[in-house]
Structure formats: structure tokens, C-alpha cells
Amino acid sequence: MGVQANTRAIEKDIVTDFSERMSYGSYLDLDTLLSAQKPVSRPEHHDELLFIIQHQTTELWLKLVLHETLAARAAFDEDEIGRALKCVARVKHIQKTLTEQWSVLATLTPTEYSEFRQFLGNSSGFQSYQYRAVEFVLGNKNAGMLTVFDADPAAHDLLERLLTEPSLYDAFWQCLSRLGYDVPASALDRDVTTAYTLNEDLLPLIKFVYENHDEHWAVYEAFEEFVDLEENFQLWRFRHMRTVLRTIGMKSGTGGSSGVGFLQKALDLTFFPELLAVRTEIGR
User: Fold this and answer.
1) Looking at its record, which EC class is this enzyme (predicted)?
2) Residue 219: enclosing H or E segment and its boundaries?
């Protein structure tokens, strides 16, 4: 039988019998993945599927962000700066995808969302344990957040563990110290269970690296990668806030937060404050 116009012939070596072979669908467990979208609105609202898929795909990307960030921390623990930055570079690309993804949800109009929002109950992105895990690994730690996950032992245990472990930034400074850099004791001995805050003791070392970058290129590059990471995270937070404002205005969030007001406060949080503060000092 000849090939019809505007069609592509199936090559003879392409596998078509999957009765005893692993297929694309079975490898990815698509039966599970594609059956995980369960709208709760009654009657089922057309746009709830968008809302569910938006948040499910975000959680999948956050799983990979956490995977790569923990790998970067482990690489710093082994003094492998290059390998750590490879992981950070991948995270940066994921962040761009996550930020652009808000444009899809922004097609949900206020009227459309209001027609099924009531069915969400108190479920909210505020309760994303993976998002909190990423924040904890990057240094924005808040022990008070653990109570949100008291009913989810696995999530609570993960966050409790990450709360007590060094952040990615902490591991980086420990790495530099082992490599012979004069990292101040205040950076090496800090209480890692608390949120990272500006340590002015680090500014002379950071300024030195920036002003002598040819001799300290790996560290110089790490500084800039961290700045990119933080900037991307803030862009994601900003797009989140603006999408919520566009969709529900100044109404409270489903999880009980103040909504846009609460999200705006997150824009003041920082992961690597010295890397921004040093810019005021350079060139003076």
C-alpha cells in the first residue's frame, strides 16, 4: 500500500510491538500521571483542569530543583565547585520555565476562577512542602512553617531535616575555607537552623574576589551564578504575585493568607545578601 500525500512513512525498523517491551507510556507511568488530574468542582468547571495542571507541573519542576540543589550542596561538600555550578545552571533554566509558566495561568480570568474557587477549600500553594524545602536549602529557613505540615509526617520530616542542615550557601563558604580562602568564623560557625542574614564580615573577601577575578575565576563565577539564582527566584515570586493580583485582586488567599499582601512581603526575602551588598562597595 503506497504512502498517502502529506504523510510520513513509518520506517521498517521502528518498533511497534510493545506487548512484551517497555514503551514510552510505561516508562513514564503515564497511566498514573494522566489520571492524577481530579477536578473537584461540581458541575466540573472547564478551567479547573488548567489550574490543576499548572500546579502539578510546578511541583514536578520543584522536585527537580530540589534534586539539583541538593546535588550542588553535596558537590560543594566535596570541594567540586564546577560540578556544583553545573547543577545550579540547570536550576536556572528550570526557573525560567517556571516563571514563564505563569503566563498560562494568567489566561484564567477573575470570573472563570471565581466559578470554581469555592471548591478548593483551604488548599493553597502556601502548603507546598517542596517549595518550602527549596527555600530552606537556599537559606530562607523558618521553623514556624513546620506546623503547616504536622498532618503530613513525610513532608514534616523532610523540612525538619533541611532546617538543621547547612544551606547551599553555608556549604559554599565551608568549601572555600577548605580551599584556603580566609572565610570569617562568623560565616563558618553560624546557627544553620536560622534564616540567613547579611554578614558584613564576608564583604572584604567577596570584594577581593571581584577585584581579582582572573586569579579566582571559579569563585567569581560562583558568585555570579548565585546572583542569577536569586534574581530568577525573585522574578518567579513577582510573577506569582502579579498573577494572583490579576486573578483575585486583593482578596485573601484560600489558605488564609492575606493574598497579594503576603506575596509582596516575600519580595523582601534574600538568599545571598552579601553578593548584592558588595556592589555598593566595588569601585568606590
Assistant:
1) oxidoreductase
2) helix 217-248
What grid cell was written down for 33? 500521571
Known binding residues are 51-55, 113, 117, 240, 254
Binding site feature residues for heme: 240
pLDDT at 256: 86
CA dist., res. 239 & res. 140, Å (int): 19
SS3 23: coil
Exposed/middle/buried for residue 233 (C-beta within 10 Å: 0-12, 13-18, 19+): buried
**Residue 42 DSSP one-character state:** S
Q: What helix, strand, coil percent values describe the chain, rounded to 5?
A: 65, 0, 35
Length of the chain: 284
Contact (Cβ atoms closer than 8 angstroms) between residue 252 and residue 126: no
This prediction has a pTM of 0.95
Say which residue the cell 510491538 belongs to: 17
CATH tag for 46-277 (out of 1.10.3720.10, 1.20.1740.10, 1.10.1740.10, 1.20.58.480): 1.20.58.480
Residue type, position 133, single letter: A
Enumerate the known binding-site residues for substrate.
51-55, 113, 117, 254
pLDDT of amino acid 4: 82
Identify the CA nearest to 255 among candidates 89, 132, 100, 111: 132
Domains in the chain: boundaries:
46-277
